[in-house]
Amino acid sequence: MNIFNLLKQLKERDVSVGVEGEKLKVYDPENNLTPELLQSLKEKKQEIIHFFSNSDELTKSDFPLADLTRELFTEIHAEYTDLQSIMIATPMQSGMIFQSLMDKSNAAYTVQLSGELVGVIDEKAFEAAWVHLIERHEILRTCFVGLGEKRIHQLVRKAAAFSVQYHDLSSYNRALAYEQLDAIKQADREQGFDLKVPPLMRVQLVKLDTELYQFIWSYHHALLDGWCNPIVIQEVMAFYQGVVNGTPVMLGEPAKYENFIRWLKSRNTDKSKLFWRETLSGLSEAAPLPFLKPAKALTSHYEKCSFSLSEEQSRNLAQLAQREKCTVNVLLQFAWAYLLSQYSARQDVHFGVTVSGRPAELIGVENMLGLFINSIPLCVSLDKASTIRAVLDNIHRTNMECNEHSYLSYSDIQKQSDIPANKPLFESLVIFENYPSDGVTGDDSSVRLTQLNSEEDTNFALTLYASMAEKLEVDLHFQTARISLENVQSVVEYLRQILISLSQVSMEELISEVSLIPVPKTKAFIAGEAKEINAESGLLAQFEHYVGMTPDKVAVVCDGHAFTYKQLSERINKMANILHAQGLGAGDLVSVYLPRNIELLTSMLAIQKVGAAYVPLSTNYPIDRIAYMLEHSKAKRVITSGDLALELEICADRVLDLSAPNVVTALEGSSIALNNEIQLPAPDDLMYVIYTSGSTGKPKGVCISHNNVANFLHAMEQSPGLSSQDRLLAITPISFDISVLELYLPLYVGATVHIVDEKISKDSGKLVSYIEQNQISCVQATPATWTMLEGQSNWSTVQPIKALCGGEALPPQLATKMVSRYEEVWNMYGPTEATVWVGAHRIDNTDAISIGTPILNTKFHVLNDKLKPVVPGMNGELYISGAGLAKGYLNEPELTTERFLSSPESGELIYKTGDVVRQISNNAYQYLGRVDEQVKVRGYRIELAEVESALIQNELIEFVVVKAVSNGDDFSQLVAYCELTPASNEYDNLDLLQKVKAHLNEALPEYMHPAYFEIIENWPLTPSGKVDKKALPKPEISLALEEYVAPNTDTEHGLVSMWSKLLKLEPSKISVTSSFFLLGGNSLLLMRLVSRLREQFSVDIELEEAMELSSIRLLAEKVDDYQKSNALSDISKVSDVLAEDEVEEAI
To answer: What is any one GO biological process for this UniProt entry (predicted)?
Structure first.
């Protein structure tokens, strides 16, 4: 072998070679030198010494713009004997190269221009013109190589073989010819480039008729930007004319791209980093676009949707820009910001903009070929108190400020924000094409270029290309995997309307007052079926109906015992007689504090039967919370039993202990007939008062009537639907209102309810067994419980179960699993104030997850903050009206007035949910989150203020802010940020945590406890002096919120060790279910992980695949599968070209 191949093999084995004087030095710390390589070294010793010592050879010092070791330079010299120049690639080039390598379609960052040429073309002269162009410009003889583990380098060769591919379609009819032309273009776009072989461009000439041609010029975007296109075309046409005429072409010496590299290296980046750090302060996620689906891969198919303004509309826009002393680009940026603000219901938005990146001080930069552009974030505040003019001025000023610091790389800019490295800095990019385009063919040319079209895709979800000549033309390129054509068409139409409206409104109008998108004159709500509910069809009446119709049918199964409808009715009557004897009746409130047994259901129904309303108390509540509810509700009695009665010393005079001998005797001796003095409740009477978390720091009681529940049960009977043959599982605590469906709907339709206690409901294995053994046909649970069941059940076939999921947002991944597992899957939505569920949507594999359509006698209104209907598809707050609305909050008239409003449109009562939704089809809405500080965790609605109120009462905590955070698995947990008092100095962190948790155990139920505590010494503040919650530091959530799961297999143990070294974490802190990125991983470390997987396990996993397999458990399964099948995939093209420290830059 030659010495270059030998040195390359040595490097691959981590063996270093050097020369000191006349001696050859070999460094082999890991004993990787084989006998064969040692023998080759001996044979080539003198040749190697001569090579390193020969001063006539090119050395790395000849290329000061490169970052090379001598060994790396040796590899270049071995492979590229005609090397002319080598220098580092710019960050933008590196990023484009990475994305194109990861794109399986080969289309990412391949730019394709096509132009129509009129005239007779000399094919050989046309090819010669392109060859002259390549000889003239170094950048067109450039390729890209990976040199070790430092940087991507761009290498200029002295020559690059090139030819123009020719197609003659002139014999085809015109329609077929253009069809073939489209096929040629498509095949060209899919071809990609070998980045190591210049020129990274192709040209095809297609003859369509005698004097009609099209040329197709494709190049890799890492070489050139759009500014270069007219320069290239102008020079090609000049060279062509010169070849045809046999005359020399007089063009000046071209400026070299290396001058720009030199300029970049001379920058002091500290000032620019500070600028971006201040600009992006508090930015922790890309501006949300509600219609975007999550990115699941690095590759995607793109399509485009276009529009143009008329010449008159375009003139109006240009005149407006002139009057406001800005550009049409600024108006377009305002329009896009306004649109994003409307979609996201946020006044602060950001998106990407492309800047030319050509520094004015660089001589000849205006005619220099190369890649200069950069994509940077533009932050726009549409403050409601600002005028349109003020926002335009701010955008114009921000553009100028950002431009000064726009040379900083995309990844360096992102590092100044809080957005993780594996997430995009922005999801949409606005490109205003304003490139020089005069005289591309010349007046004396025998060939005319009549049109020039460009096709290219970025790696952003949405890229908006705009240009302005006689009229404004806009193309919106979109990733089809992430956004539907229907949504894009809406975006395009709304953007068009905003641009038109801009020139028709006063610039002094306030953002809060102006409406630049006309709202369609349609109904301001969608309504469920309107149907009158018979007063005799309430819960008690329906139950008694089935007592008469099917007295011996099992109504309830509990604690291993079955109770028929007749037996349950008798127990209820006995309990009702006792309650009546104690003076309880219409208008009274009775608390229920019982374990999950038959007495629980009996008591709740007996309370209703005497005309009173029940107040459910969870046996898991702290005694302080129970005391507050009893005091606030003024409950006349508390029904309890056994040991639970001993906990209620605070209200001993009101306790009705079902285990007390006198009560047991009374129950046994009581008549099974209902006392005829008992008056059944009226439809409008209260059925129950259920307490939910309150923003004042105390829970609030929601008052629900018999009418409310009757409408709800009747609606649920219809959809999702329940029949007398069903067996429904009741697992939810009665303090959570979805228990109303579980306990009452079966009795309403003549079915059977199975009540299970916490020993079963919280043990997924036991719960699965119970479902199987009792042939349960309907289960209602929160997403967290369904996730738990998914992890335990071994069902291999679709189960005959109707699965109802609600209480919090249903994650798409869970929905997909459930659809494949259960016969029917329903997403349920509803606030307690509207009686359990108000929306139900059956999910299939293709649906977006919707909260469904309104149930019977219910309406949905989606309104803005002025209670006006929002434009379909945009975010708004959901208001509910109809038969399910609660009577208000118990003893809270001001709060009731605040949340139950009169609709300005119809005058009817509407409830303000605080939920943000958007319309995704004619009659369906998608839940997007909350507008206030209320969150849902594990299905429970929690006011963060209530948690903060409980924590601040602890003597160790001076100040506290509580946030809900995602644990990386689509579920939320609470994080408490605490400033400590001096008293805390007496304790270490572990003792502190134990004392705070002990305090919480007495103040709040377990589901309201923060899962993570972060100590804060200096609070980040907003300009108004409030705590900037967005800027609060990110805790190591995965370490705190996820239960530690130890490795089981050898592969998992090996991966834990590998992650420990990469992430610099103790193995004991790495759960096999934790996310690589939440543990501190980034794209650079991911690349190293892929490399080490190859070394340690002899498997090649795609970088894209590794990003998906972000936990050790998932990764271990994949490694084991690879090893079993010996199926190795190839990502060598990535690792050959990309150095580890560039991957982060590239992504």
So the answer is: amino acid activation for nonribosomal peptide biosynthetic process
